[in-house]
Amino acid sequence: MAQKRMIFEEVGARTVPTPQGSLISGKGQGARRAIRAWLMLIFAMVTAMIIVGGLTRLTGSGLSITQWKPISGALPPMTAKAWADAFALYQHSPQYLIENKGMSLQHFQYIYWWEWSHRQLGRTIGLVWALGFFGFWAAGMIPTGWVRRLFALGVLGGLQGAIGWWMVSSGLTGDMTAVASYRLATHLGIGFVILGLTAWFILQMSRSEAALLQARRQGDRKLFGMATGVLHLAFLQVLLGALVAGIDAGRNYPTWPMMNGHFFPEDAFKVDGALWRAFFENAGLVQFVHRMTAYLLVTFGVIVAIRARRSAHASIRGAFAAMGAMLILQMTLGIFTALYAAPLHIAIVHQLGAVLLWVLILRARHTARYPIVGSIRRGTA
Questions:
Q1: Burial 279-292 (b: 16+ CB within 10 A, else e)
Q2: Helices (H) and strands (E) in the chain, counts
Q3: How does pLDDT run across 66-102, given as a tens digit for each residue?
Q4: Model confidence pLDDT, tens digit, residues 257-301
Q5: Are 236 and 364 part of one and the same domain?
Q6: Which ranges of 206-313 does DSSP label H, i.e. alpha helix?
Q7: Which domain holds residue 301?
Q8: Residue 297 and residue 321 share a domain
Q9: pTM, full prediction
Q10: How far apart are CA 308 and CA 320, in angstroms?
Q11: Are 192 and 239 contained in the same domain?
């Protein structure tokens, strides 16, 4: 039975409940910091995965392992007989028979280690995700509404592994000496989706839900929409870059701004089969579309960055200025990549530039929606 209260009970005698924190914030900031650190580790590993993948392609190593063994394949050949068996499997591939016939075992081991490292890094990323996700979930540390989002990263990672084998298998039949360019574009595209989602989640986890809700009231919806347009155009450019890499189109026209003396390549639609295949298989047309999209992306992105200069928030101005500067730098790297016929060291820096640009676009987009509001008195508004 509830205890009767006196009519003239003093207010000061009442026990005031201690505030338990915002219901919007969900889990404590300690949990958010831990999850953010875990996501940052995944982000670093996915970035390394993209770079190692690029080096694997540039060294012609992607078809050295002709079987897909997600579990047992984690162990490389450990004996001379195991190496001989792996080499024998590769010797039946079109790449060996057409391009690398007579390759030594030592050279095979060189390309094998690149592909094995690429796959092993993928397995390690999956393990880090699984340990983190199920560990945080079992401990009840995942904030409300975040279970599905974090689980989706794991699903995309598993899908990426399957797509990776789908890509490799395209180069193991017929007269293919490399993977199909459109499958390479799909594989790289999913990689950038995973990277982008991870970066966005890191940004979301950097502040509490209550702080984000308050910051959103100060956001610039129009600038957010424009940044979304830049993001979509940049993603298209990533896919086009993969098509260029897939058929080595970057090495066919080592001139700029013209393409071997022409604005539009003369043999742009020369291709076996249906005409639409030229957009995927003709080196001149693929590189032309990649160049034109780059000009469009840089022009639009710089216009958006200039528009952001009118923002009252220094955080927005700074984020979009960084994005605009990186757009120009990335286009410059692309020009040098073409002029020097895509040598390994320049090509990989260009790919790393794409990763950095992708993150800066996401950061600018996030800041447009959730600006960091500073102090007017300190000049950081």
A1: bbbbbbbbbbbbbe
A2: 12, 0
A3: 999 988 889 999 999 999 999 999 999 999 999 999 9
A4: 999 999 999 888 888 888 888 888 899 999 999 999 999 999 999
A5: yes
A6: 209-216, 221-246, 278-281, 283-308
A7: 212-381
A8: yes
A9: 0.88
A10: 6
A11: no
